[in-house]
Design goal:
It comes from Marilutibacter spongiae. It is a single chain. The protein has about 280 residues and is an alpha/beta fold. It has nine helices and 14 strands. Strand 12 and strand 13 form a beta hairpin.
Length: about 280
């Protein structure tokens, strides 16, 4: 059941699509939408002598706060009249980096919704950092939106392998899958999968979903020289899917999380909304 949607703004053109998707989802689920405009304030750089006050920071911070307030007003005007419960607030994280501050706020939601970063946009760095923080630090699923999806979902794809991340993503997505007319459980190169998949990869999870009265189909895709992400996205395009569900993979590096290859490729190349969960 989805009752709380969290939407941190990225400052990119994709925010409009993310907000439209959140509104449509809130309307379907009768959920509340919290839109948050973060303020990225530069902090004084510490030295061997401590933190030296920078007289220029005060003016810079005032400018950033004023711009955040202006953006908040614009989004309130955008949401005014929508027949869903919503709020728009400005968040000033202080000594915490904005992406991590947003991940903390996402703890109190059912689902985070955000704009998918453009692969070549110069302003995509914050969106990437935000996605990493939400995925690996909030414990909540993240719906990445490259454009506003038609809701409710008519056809969905679940990228399946027998592991914790895929199972978590699938079960986090159940509220979105409940009204789907068809769901493809897709395995890529199942013969190369781990021993836990058994003789018929995907059968066990398809049986589980059938007990939820979900209309599932098993689809096995060969890689054929493609990446896993390319095979999944090609099937999504050919089958007319409105949603892809995938585990969000990564590895810890110097206390920071780096995205796994398939997760990164899906994030940068997707043409449809993807629900990731870690």
């Amino acid at each position: 059941m989805i009752r709380d949607l969290f939407l941190p703004l990225t400052g990119t053109p994709g925010d409009e699509s993310a907000v439209a998707a959140a509104i449509a989802l809130a309307r379907t689920c009768r959920a509340h939408v919290s839109v948050v405009q973060p303020v990225d304030l530069s902090l004084p750089i510490p030295s061997a002598w401590g933190i030296t006050p920078d007289p220029t920071l005060g003016h810079t911070h005032d400018t950033l706060r004023a711009e955040a307030a202006r953006q908040a007003v614009r989004w309130r005007e955008r949401l005014d009249g929508e027949e869903v419960s919503w709020e728009v607030r400005v968040d000033e994280p202080g000594l915490v980096e904005p992406p991590r501050a947003m991940a903390r706020q996402a703890l109190y939601s059912d689902l985070s919704v955000m704009a998918a970063p453009a692969p070549t946009a110069s302003d995509a760095a914050f969106a990437h950092a935000l996605f990493n923080a939400l995925l690996f630090e909030s414990g909540r699923p993240v719906l990445m939106v490259p454009h506003a999806p038609p809701l409710p979902v008519r056809h969905a794809i679940v990228a399946w392998k027998s592991c914790r991340h895929a199972s978590r993503a699938l079960h986090d997505a159940l509220p979105l899958l409940a009204g789907a007319g068809s769901i493809d459980i897709v395995t890529v190169d199942p013969a190369a999968a781990g021993a836990f998949d058994g003789a018929d990869p995907g059968v066990d999870i398809a049986t589980h979903l059938a007990r939820h009265a979900l209309p599932v189909n098993l689809v096995s895709l060969p890689r054929g020289g493609q990446t896993v992400a390319s095979a999944l996205l090609r099937h999504a395009s050919e089958s007319g899917a409105q949603l892809l569900v995938a585990g969000g993979y990564g590895h810890s590096r110097l206390r920071e999380w780096a995205l796994g290859g398939t997760t990164r490729d899906l994030l940068l190349a997707t043409h449809l909304p993807i629900l990731f969960s870690h």
